Amino acid sequence: MTTQDAPIADASGRPADEPGSGPTRAGGRFDRLRSIRIAGLGAVFVLFVIAGAVLAPERFLTLNNLYNILLQASVIGIVTIGLTFVILGGGIDLSVGSLVALAGVVAAAPFAQDGGVLAMVAIALAVGALAGLVNGALIAYGRVVAFITTLAMLTTARGLAIRVTDSRPFIISEDAFNTLGTDRLLGVPIPVYFFLAVAVLGWVLLNRTTFGRRTVAIGGNAEASRLAGIDVKRHTMLLYVLSGVLSGLAAVLISAQLTTGSASVGIGYELDAIAAVIIGGASLSGGRGTVVGSVLGILTLTVLANIFALLLIPSDVRQIVQGVIIVVAVLLQGRSRSS
User: Fold this and answer.
1) Do the bridges between strand 184-185 and strand 188-189 make them parallel or antiparallel, or are there none, so unpaired?
2) 7 in a domain, yes or no?
3) Are 110 and 300 in contact (CB under 8 A)?
4) Residue 13 covered by a domain
5) Which of 282, 268, 265, 284 is nearest to 161 (CA)?
6) How far apart are CA 87 and CA 277, in angstroms?
């Protein structure tokens, strides 16, 4: 991360090149590069849509398939937005997939279902928040490396999910809860509305609040942010709590879709979410990235997976192509920084 990409923050947490704190050439260059990245990714997304329409014209452009793409992107998309904030703040969270499983099975447990839909949703969010709090506290105050902490949480949460269910999924009999994942509103699956709401709120939080400005500042230069008066440790912990809460929300939606709480859900979510954030233009070193880019990233990957499924192409080929896309995205980031 260069100082041009991550300007030092002032005491309020506003990067020095943001509107309202004195525009600079670095800030203008950063904004232009960010716009170019988003426009480029948007063009790639459109090209994938055109490819789908050409390669599978009778199946890809059907309304049901388009809704299916949005539905598939919704759950992992919500996880991706939470991970975007963590990566922007200079961290990483490998535990999100396991947290989805753990929050889902606890919310689907018989004692939770006895409390009704509100209790089930609240429990899922609370489990995600608590796990995120543990991650954040160990990383920020315990000074344990984020990779190690969240890797440990990945295995611990998955193990707890298996223990809670005794390797047998919980059947969810609460119809009001299942409605959140299976019903449609105006023809659109309800999880899509949740995804849209989280994306909009995430954009506002990142671009229009002090919390978002401080996240970018900390990811760009944590020590400078501390000297500027930002409580870096507290803010870092809150980023992991946010990621945990959104994992809990994703758990609600996927459990409602499947009408079961299963310890096997969420496997690989962390990899797909990180891939989407990187493809969306974020830097793993922190301080650079956008919610819009991450949303486009997960939609692009979902469209790619959908095309491969329609053409009956093996999943291993999709994984290879996804890996190539990630490498190309990283190479393009490196070129844009050096230009």
Assistant:
1) antiparallel
2) no
3) no
4) no
5) 265
6) 8
Per-residue pLDDT tens digits for 262-305:
999 999 899 999 999 998 888 888 888 899 999 999 999 999 88
190-249 pLDDT, tens digit per residue, is 999 999 999 999 999 999 999 999 999 999 999 999 999 999 999 999 999 999 999 999
Per the structure, the count of domains in the chain is 1
Q: What is the CATH number of the domain that holds 88?
A: 1.10.3470
**Tokens encoding 214:** 């401080």
Its pTM stands at: 0.87
Mean of the per-residue pLDDT values for the chain? 87
How many whole angstroms separate alpha carbon 20 and alpha carbon 48?
38
Mean pLDDT to the nearest integer, 105-109: 95
Domain that holds residue 242: 25-338
Characterize the bridge pairing of strands 170-171 and 260-261. Answer: antiparallel
Assigned domain for 12 exists: no
Q: Is residue 221 part of a domain?
A: yes
| Rounded Cα gap, residues 220 and 7, in angstroms | 7
